Amino acid sequence: GYEHDLHPSHDADYFRGILDGSGGADAIVSAPAINFSDTPGGAQGHFAADAAFPQGNGDEFVIEATAELNVTAAQAGTWTFGINSDDGARLVIDNTTVILDDATHAPTDHLGTISLSAGTHSLELVFFEHASGATLELFAAPGAHAGFDGSFQLVTSGAGTGLKITPAGFD
Fold first, then answer.
1. H helices within the chain, ranges in order?
2. How far apart are CA 39 and CA 36, in angstroms?
3. What strand order describes the sheet that includes 61-71?
4. C-alpha–C-alpha distance, residues 115 and 78, integer Å
5. Distance between CA atoms of 80 and 19, rounded to whole angstroms?
6. Which of 14, 103, 128, 142 has the most crowded CB, counting CB atoms within 10 A?
7. Is 18 helix (H, G, I), strand (E, B) or coil?
8. H helices within 8-106, ranges in order?
9. Which residues, at least 6 apart from 159, have a Cβ–Cβ distance to it below 8 Å?
């Protein structure tokens, strides 16, 4: 696909300027999980009940999601994070790039591993949608994984046994 330079110095405002000329205009929206698609209610990725993108569907947009990730003592250790997206995304945890996907493409999984200690960790996800179709999921599983399997869960502020974010969701 078309390559973008999604390196650490580029934030959501940078891509807004490239994609829509808005100069970085944005609105803050809170969401309990990152599970969005341009066909809400379906399951374009691995998880059902996709929500609509916060600012509506279409092409040429950017999402920057930030949250505090809470890891319990029992959860401390190696974690594999995954992004299923159409188009590219970057996941940064505690200033470490865990996943870097700087291309346009159909829905595709990208995985990365990181060791997390018990406590609070900063999480930032930047996603861009260029053209034709859009989906975005953020999920995680304990341990090291080479591909998606049933142990992955959405990273959420809701119910479940996976990693939790606070206070009430991604901003």
1. 12-20
2. 8
3. 96-101, 89-93, 119-129, 61-71, 164-166
4. 4
5. 30
6. 128
7. helix
8. 12-20
9. none
Q: For residues 131 and 31, give the distance between their C-alpha atoms in angstroms, rounded to a whole number.
A: 23
Model pLDDT, residue 171:
54
Residue 2: how many other CB atoms lie within 10 Å? 11
Question: For tokens 């309990």, what's the residue?
Answer: 32
Confidence of residue 6 (pLDDT cuts 50, 70, 90): very low
Are residues 118 and 72 in contact, defined by beta-carbon separation less than 8 angstroms? Answer: yes
Biggest CA–CA distance in the chain, Å, is 46
Q: Is the peptide bond before 167 cis (omega within 30 degrees of 0)?
A: yes
Cα Rg of the chain, angstroms: 15
Q: 100-157 pLDDT, tens per residue?
A: 998 888 899 999 999 999 999 999 999 888 877 888 999 999 999 999 999 999 998 7
Listed residue (148, 4, 25) closest to 80, CA to CA: 148
